[in-house]
């Protein structure tokens, strides 16, 4: 018996690019039957973007669409519209991330969908929620900028910086997935579907929550003592960029390790957690700092973070990042190596946990992917390859009751 957590849940996946597909991929990993609807001929634009092998679906597409089925359907043709309506009646959830107004232009208003299937949950990603930008198209970095991430990332003397972590796209997809399973749970009591909206700006802001905390602290105190601007620099009226400072009350910084001159990732993140301050002093050979008034308390240390980290760095530069990790972990000193993508791809433990997975694909061969980072003890994830364009059109139409003759007519019309 298929006892996956979401088995039996059918998702009409009308998503493209990254944000929406992240959400439906997660739902597929939890066991939902995800039917991805794509335009005949071209499909999701990412199939052809950033291609590394000519004529083969890109890694961009294959890494965001695992465990799904693909149906091609022209939503603007007569037959395609009918098929879409059958799918709406057949499925529990519709997920989409089209530009604002695109669903309505296809005739798929919330009212129409709800009329066809009152139990249907409709999950949407949009760039912005209601307001001055609600009609705008949005990509990842726009969301990072509008959600407060860019203005608070980077160094004080440089421009705003966007993060390599796709918090706008994949971050919003995660938020939407939670909204959808919550609505599914609610439906078990109410019997009705509802709309779930995850705007990208809001999702990024949610992930930047601590910066809004700091904005209010700044307004009260005109200074933020754990920020690198303290005690020498000036604070303005908005939260400044904090470089590599730790986001919380435990001061941290990125320090060079042995080999940094040639290896761009020979660095370690080092946190001077108060509880292990004596151990830090012992490791770096500054035991007098344990009792010296200038260093003994977390409050006093905030005035000297730069020289403290410079001294710790003298020590980390004498070790590789992995040697430093090994020593520091013996003392429970929180730290982490700066891992390159190459190191992550080769990491045996991430492979063992199923977070880095090798998948066989019929046209590209074997490729690496990020598996399900959320582990359910009774519903383990088996990562399967992304579908080829329209690979399951016939299979799904047969399930919907379409005959071979119906399918021929739809094909002749260009609807599938
Ligand atoms: N059959 C027929 N038409 C289809 C179709 C199908 N199966 N699938 C899509 N289309 C049509 C849509 O109906 C739309 O047509 P209209 O413009 O005539 O209404 C058209 O394809 C294009 O859709 P789009 O405007 O969403 O696509 P785009 O490439 O121009 O914009 C994006 C992409 C991402 C900027 C936009 O979709 C968007 O802002 N989405 C919401 C925010 C979001 O998710 N952003 C994250 C993207 S990942 O970085």
TrEMBL record:
<dbReference type="GO" id="GO:0033608">
    <property type="term" value="F:formyl-CoA transferase activity"/>
</dbReference>
<feature type="binding site">
    <location>
        <begin position="137"/>
        <end position="140"/>
    </location>
    <ligand>
        <name>CoA</name>
    </ligand>
</feature>
<dbReference type="InterPro" id="IPR023606">
    <property type="entry name" value="CoA-Trfase_III_dom_1_sf"/>
</dbReference>
<feature type="active site" description="Nucleophile">
    <location>
        <position position="169"/>
    </location>
</feature>
<dbReference type="Pfam" id="PF02515">
    <property type="entry name" value="CoA_transf_3"/>
</dbReference>
<dbReference type="InterPro" id="IPR017659">
    <property type="entry name" value="Formyl_CoA_transfer"/>
</dbReference>
<comment type="pathway">
    <text>Metabolic intermediate degradation; oxalate degradation; CO(2) and formate from oxalate: step 1/2.</text>
</comment>
<feature type="binding site">
    <location>
        <position position="105"/>
    </location>
    <ligand>
        <name>CoA</name>
    </ligand>
</feature>
<feature type="binding site">
    <location>
        <begin position="18"/>
        <end position="19"/>
    </location>
    <ligand>
        <name>CoA</name>
    </ligand>
</feature>
<feature type="binding site">
    <location>
        <position position="39"/>
    </location>
    <ligand>
        <name>CoA</name>
    </ligand>
</feature>
<dbReference type="InterPro" id="IPR050483">
    <property type="entry name" value="CoA-transferase_III_domain"/>
</dbReference>
<dbReference type="GO" id="GO:0033611">
    <property type="term" value="P:oxalate catabolic process"/>
</dbReference>
<dbReference type="InterPro" id="IPR044855">
    <property type="entry name" value="CoA-Trfase_III_dom3_sf"/>
</dbReference>
<protein>
    <recommendedName>
        <fullName>Formyl-CoA:oxalate CoA-transferase</fullName>
        <ecNumber>2.8.3.16</ecNumber>
    </recommendedName>
</protein>
<comment type="subunit">
    <text>Homodimer.</text>
</comment>
<dbReference type="InterPro" id="IPR003673">
    <property type="entry name" value="CoA-Trfase_fam_III"/>
</dbReference>
<feature type="binding site">
    <location>
        <begin position="97"/>
        <end position="99"/>
    </location>
    <ligand>
        <name>CoA</name>
    </ligand>
</feature>
<comment type="function">
    <text>Involved in the catabolism of oxalate and in the adapatation to low pH via the induction of the oxalate-dependent acid tolerance response (ATR). Catalyzes the transfer of the CoA moiety from formyl-CoA to oxalate.</text>
</comment>
<keyword id="KW-0808">Transferase</keyword>
<feature type="binding site">
    <location>
        <begin position="248"/>
        <end position="250"/>
    </location>
    <ligand>
        <name>substrate</name>
    </ligand>
</feature>
<comment type="similarity">
    <text>Belongs to the CoA-transferase III family. Frc subfamily.</text>
</comment>
């Amino acid at each position: 018996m298929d006892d996956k957590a979401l088995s039996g849940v059918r998702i009409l996946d009308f998503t493209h690019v990254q944000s929406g597909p992240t959400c439906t991929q997660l739902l597929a990993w939890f066991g939902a039957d995800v039917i991805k609807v794509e335009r005949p001929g071209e499909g999701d634009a990412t199939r052809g973007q950033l291609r590394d092998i000519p004529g083969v679906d890109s890694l961009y597409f294959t890494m965001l669409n695992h465990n799904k089925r693909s149906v091609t359907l022209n939503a603007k043709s007569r037959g395609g519209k009918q098929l879409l309506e059958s799918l709406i009646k057949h499925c529990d959830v519709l997920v989409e991330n089209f530009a604002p107004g695109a669903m309505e232009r296809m005739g798929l208003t919330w009212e129409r969908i709800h009329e066809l299937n009152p139990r249907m949950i409709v999950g949407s990603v949009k760039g912005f929620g209601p307001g001055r930008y609600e009609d705008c198209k949005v990509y990842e970095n726009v969301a990072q900028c509008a959600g407060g991430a860019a203005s608070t990332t980077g160094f004080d003397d440089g421009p705003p910086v966007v993060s390599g972590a796709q918090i706008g796209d994949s971050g919003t997809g995660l938020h939407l997935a939670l909204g959808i399973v919550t609505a599914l749970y609610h439906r078990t009591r109410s019997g009705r579907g509802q709309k779930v909206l995850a705007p990208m700006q809001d999702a990024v802001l949610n992930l930047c929550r601590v910066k809004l905390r700091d904005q209010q602290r700044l307004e009260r105190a005109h200074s933020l003592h754990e920020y690198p601007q303290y005690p020498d620099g000036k604070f303005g009226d908005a939260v400044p960029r904090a470089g590599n400072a730790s986001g919380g009350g435990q001061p941290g910084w990125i320090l060079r390790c042995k080999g940094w001159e040639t290896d761009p990732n020979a660095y370690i993140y080092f946190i001077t957690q108060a509880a292990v301050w004596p151990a830090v002093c012992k490791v770096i050979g500054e035991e007098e700092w344990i009792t010296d008034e200038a260093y003994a308390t977390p409050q006093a240390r905030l005035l000297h973070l730069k020289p403290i980290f410079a001294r710790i760095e003298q020590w980390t530069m004498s070790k590789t990042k992995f040697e430093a990790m090994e020593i520091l972990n013996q003392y429970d000193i929180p730290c982490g190596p700066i891992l390159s993508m190459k190191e992550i791809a080769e990491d045996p433990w991430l492979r063992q946990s199923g977070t880095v997975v090798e998948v066989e694909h019929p046209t590209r061969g074997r490729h690496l992917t990020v598996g399900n980072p959320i582990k359910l003890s009774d519903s383990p994830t088996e990562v399967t390859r992304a579908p080829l364009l329209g690979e399951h059109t016939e299979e799904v139409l047969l399930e919907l009751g379409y005959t071979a003759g119906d399918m021929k007519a739809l094909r002749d019309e260009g609807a599938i």
